[in-house]
Amino acid sequence: MTRYRCGSCSYRSHHLGDAQQHSQQTGHVCTGKDDAGPAGGRFGKAGVVVKAGAGVLAATTIGALAWKCKGLQEERDGLLSMAAGLVVQLAEATAENESLKSENDYLKSATGAAKTLKSYDDRVG
Prior knowledge:
- Strands 2-1-3 form a 3-stranded antiparallel beta sheet, with helices on one face.
- It has a domain at 1-37.
- The radius of gyration is 47 Å and the shape is rod-shaped.
- The protein is mostly helical.
- 2% of the residues are buried.
- It is built from 3 helices and 3 strands.
């Protein structure tokens, strides 16, 4: 509710008509002041709309980030599984390489070379 107050004397009123009549009779100037202040602060309804919009935007942003985070976690889990598979393949390849090195060393040795030549002679001859 608006209260009207005279700037020159102690007159006060809640009605605009009474304040205007006082001003006309005395020549004083009455000013109006809203007791409650504007609804929602300085900007009134616009401030309420802005606050509601900001809340919706924040909720949407949080939802989008949570969805993206879940997607990244699933991708990370897939990459970890792939890395584990590659480690197993590497171990198998390393074991096979060691076995082939051993066989190669044997074939290069005198005993291995003699057996290889003997088996070759048996097949040809």
